[in-house]
């Protein structure tokens, strides 16, 4: 992708279902070959920055984590012209210092999901993208600065354990995840981050801590009522940070190495590629497939 302007895709998690600052806002249905996205996409702008907002669980929080169609969501954002994607998610804490109310810039993942399609590619068009550094450092740094400027208490750098859900962890699982080096836990960032990388979309994740996971002796279980109250408080700052991020972005968007990630990932020989799968890949991989 050549240098140019920004179009920021925002995936809103639990507690973030709208962006108040959007100008010229309009909900639009986007069709994808991967099925129906979680909701329509809210097109708009904040100043000169184009924004596309998608509520991950749908308006009204209709869709549970395992049933979020992440492939359709990422494809829809790509079709909507997004250059970068900022995901905002509610998370549980696996560390004492990451107390409820804090914001966390995630930089690594441990994927424990088991029931979700994790790739756009498959038989007839094989690709292997690098996930060594799974988030965009540029967008992550900008999002961290915007969170702080919006009044959030933000911690930079954390490993996110993605669990299947919809149930919360057992105490044994929670303790194991801590021993593995995970810092926070959630149910939706995977395979979302993997799919964004396959779609050549620089991706960053801001986690909003709503509760401590059940590893603490004094925490018998996650109390949903308290979690929802914290989500509501976090959502106020989250909406402000999106507006602040748009105001902080450089006027010109310099190209990112992630923009051309598929140049080094496609492996299937040209004469062995499945035309039907290639047709489904028109948005996410059309640039590389030519």
Structure description:
- By secondary structure, this protein is of the alpha/beta class.
- The chain has a single domain (86-289), classed as Nucleoside phosphorylase domain (Rossmann fold, 3-Layer(aba) Sandwich).
- It contains seven helices and eleven strands.
- Strands 1, 2, 3, 4, 5, 6, 7, 8, 9, 10 and 11 form an eleven-stranded mixed sheet that branches.
- The two termini are 13 Å apart.
- 47% of the residues are buried.
Task: Jot down its keywords.
single chain; 290 residues; alpha/beta; Rossmann fold; eleven-stranded mixed β-sheet; 7 helices; 28% helix
Quickly count the domains.
1
Give the strand content.
15-25%
Rg over CA atoms, rounded to whole Å, is 18 Å
What kind of sheet is the major sheet?
11 strands, mixed
CATH topology: Rossmann fold
- Mean pLDDT reading: 93
What is this entry, summarized?
The protein is an alpha/beta fold.
Any chance you could write out the topology, listing elements then pairs?
Layout: E1 7-12, E2 23-28, E3 41-46, E4 49-55, H1 70-79, E5 84-93, E6 103-106, E7 108-111, H2 137-149, E8 154-156, E9 159-162, H3 171-180, E10 184-186, H4 189-198, E11 203-212, H5 224-248, H6 275-280, H7 282-289
């Amino acid at each position: 992708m050549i240098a140019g302007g920004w179009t920021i895709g925002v995936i809103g998690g639990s507690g973030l279902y709208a962006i108040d600052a959007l100008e010229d806002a309009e909900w639009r249905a986007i069709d994808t070959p991967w099925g129906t996205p979680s909701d329509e996409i809210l097109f708009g702008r904040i100043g000169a920055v184009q924004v596309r907002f998608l509520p991950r669980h749908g308006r009204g929080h209709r869709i549970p984590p395992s049933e979020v169609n992440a492939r359709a969501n990422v494809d829809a954002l790509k079709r909507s012209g997004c250059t970068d994607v900022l995901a905002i998610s509610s998370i549980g804490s696996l560390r004492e210092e990451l107390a409820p109310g804090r914001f966390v810039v995630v930089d690594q993942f441990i994927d424990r999901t088991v029931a979700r399609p994790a790739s756009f590619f498959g038989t007839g068009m094989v690709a292997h993208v690098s996930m060594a550094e799974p988030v965009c450092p540029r967008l992550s740094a900008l999002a961290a600065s915007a969170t702080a400027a919006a009044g959030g208490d933000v911690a930079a750098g954390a490993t996110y354990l993605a669990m299947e859900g919809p149930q919360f962890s057992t105490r044994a699982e929670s303790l194991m995840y801590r021993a593995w080096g995970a810092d926070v836990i959630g149910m939706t960032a995977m395979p979302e981050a993997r799919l964004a990388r396959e779609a050549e979309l620089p991706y960053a994740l801001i986690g909003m801590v709503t509760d401590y996971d059940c590893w603490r002796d004094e925490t018998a279980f996650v109390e949903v009522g308290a979690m929802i109250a914290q989500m509501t408080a976090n959502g106020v700052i989250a909406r402000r940070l999106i507006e602040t991020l748009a105001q902080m972005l450089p006027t010109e968007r310099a190209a990112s190495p992630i923009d051309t990630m598929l140049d080094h990932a496609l492996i299937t020989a040209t004469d062995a590629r499945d035309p039907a799968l290639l047709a489904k890949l028109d948005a996410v991989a059309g640039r590389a497939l030519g």
